[in-house]
């Protein structure tokens, strides 16, 4: 039941970094870790901060506001003060484009 949306060229992806993008009115954070690509909601579950302004270390994104952390693979909190998981979205690279399915 995936509704894939073409969001960008694959070569526009950052390298081992995070970028924010509004897709269909939803603020989405897109992460790369090596060859892997992940997507979650961009708004931290703890407060009014965009995770694309944070720091990505491997599969872990650190929120810029209170330094809470999430695993970008499943959205689960990995460091206080965050306790609520991020919503994750399906994302794939195909034919030189990046495709997102907003959950
Ligand atoms: Fe993200 Fe507080 S707003 S940790």
User: What is the residue-mean pLDDT, rounded to a whole number?
Assistant: 96
Find the count of extended strands (DSSP E, 2+ residues). Answer: 10
Which fold name corresponds to the CATH topology?
Answer: Rieske Iron-sulfur Protein
Q: Tell me the count of domains.
A: 1
β-strand amount: over 45%
Class, according to the CATH hierarchy? Mainly Beta
Widest sheet: strand order? 1-10-9-4-3-2
Written description of the protein model:
- Its cofactor is [2Fe-2S] cluster.
- Belongs to the bacterial ring-hydroxylating dioxygenase ferredoxin component family.
- It comes from Pseudacidovorax intermedius.
- Keywords: 2Fe-2S, Dioxygenase, Iron, Iron-sulfur, Metal-binding, Oxidoreductase.
- InterPro entries: Rieske_2Fe-2S, Rieske_2Fe-2S_sf.
- The strands form two sheets. This protein has a six-stranded antiparallel β-sheet with strand order 1-10-9-4-3-2, with no helix packed on it. A four-stranded antiparallel β-sheet has the order 5-6-7-8, with no helix packed on it.
- It has a single domain (5-97), classed as Rieske Iron-sulfur Protein (3-layer Sandwich).
- It contains no helices and ten strands.
- The mean pLDDT is 96.
- The protein has strands spanning 5-9, 18-23, 26-33, 36-41, 55-57, 60-62, 69-71, 77-79, 88-94, 97-101.
- The relative contact order is 0.25.
- The chain is an all-beta fold and 103 residues long.
- The structure holds FE2/S2 (inorganic) cluster.
- The site of FE2/S2 (inorganic) cluster has 10 residues, from loops.
């Amino acid at each position: 039941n995936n509704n894939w949306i073409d969001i960008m060229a694959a070569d526009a992806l950052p390298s081992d970094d995070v970028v924010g993008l509004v897709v269909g009115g939803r603020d989405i954070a897109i992460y790369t870790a090596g060859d892997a690509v992940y997507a979650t909601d961009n708004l931290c579950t703890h407060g009014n901060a965009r995770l694309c302004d944070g720091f990505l270390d491997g599969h872990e994104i650190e929120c810029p506001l209170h330094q809470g952390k999430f695993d970008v693979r499943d959205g689960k909190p990995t460091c206080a003060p965050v306790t609520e998981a991020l919503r994750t979205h399906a994302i794939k690279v195909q034919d030189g484009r990046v495709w997102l399915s907003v959950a």
